[in-house]
Amino acid sequence: MPYLGDYIGHLLSEVTNARVQADLESVRIAEIYASHPLLRNMPVPHFRLPKVDLDVPVAISDMKSAVDQEATHRVLTNMRESFPRVFAIQAKKVQIEVANDEKIRIEKELDKRLAALKKEPVVLKADQLSVQEREEAAKRLSITTITEDFISAAFRIMEPRLKKEAGGPERIQKLKADMKKAAFMEFSKYLHENTRLNVAITSSDLKEIGRESDPGSIMVKIRLSISEEAFEWSVVDSDGEIRELLVPE
Questions:
Q1: Nearest residue to 79 (alpha-carbon basis) of 153, 162, 156
Q2: Residue 39 and residue 26: Cα distance in Å, rounded?
Q3: What confidence tens digit (pLDDT) does each residue in 178-222 have?
Q4: Taking the domains of the chain in order of start, what are their residue ranges?
Q5: Which helix (H) or strand (E) holds 244?
Q6: CA distance 46 to 65
């Protein structure tokens, strides 16, 4: 069964396709008008969809939890593997060289932190936790917390040496600030998806659910009011350079 968001997205896509088909037909008719001695002086029929109202019946049959042990392990592993690369790039920008022994120690420390994260109760037994326990565990598994944890692991190893170097403290602060931004940007792509709703949408499924009054499904009617906002290509001259821009009509 599809997700509710995907289903609504497909409906919107179909409405867009309806406008495309109408425009293509208008082009075909315009060519006919242009070739006819009488029709060429008449306006070409052109239809728009300024507002479309849809009443969509669906049955919510299931809910996919955002907490999935396998997916969470994969996300945490990806974050741990990408951190050294981001750290190396940012360290180079502030002219900090990471020694080989420091790289090895950082890798070991990250592995230790990763192992601890994978043992979080919300990862292992989410269904057995209370709401408060889930919220507290979610904070520990947030992108911000993991980013700060990994940065702390790296600097715990790097700081003793850097503090003794000329300009070391300043470069440390610069690298910490840059790392928070860069690591957060890198890790943001691993954010957990929200809980998804599975829905029954076909007429046969809805009739079956209606007849059986399935207690596991919730029948709802979604009213969508869609307003059209079209775009058109516009040619602009900017400093002698001709560019085409897609702008609202």
A1: 153
A2: 14
A3: 998 998 888 887 765 556 778 888 888 877 776 665 555 677 889
A4: 4-65+196-248, 69-190
A5: strand 241-248
A6: 46
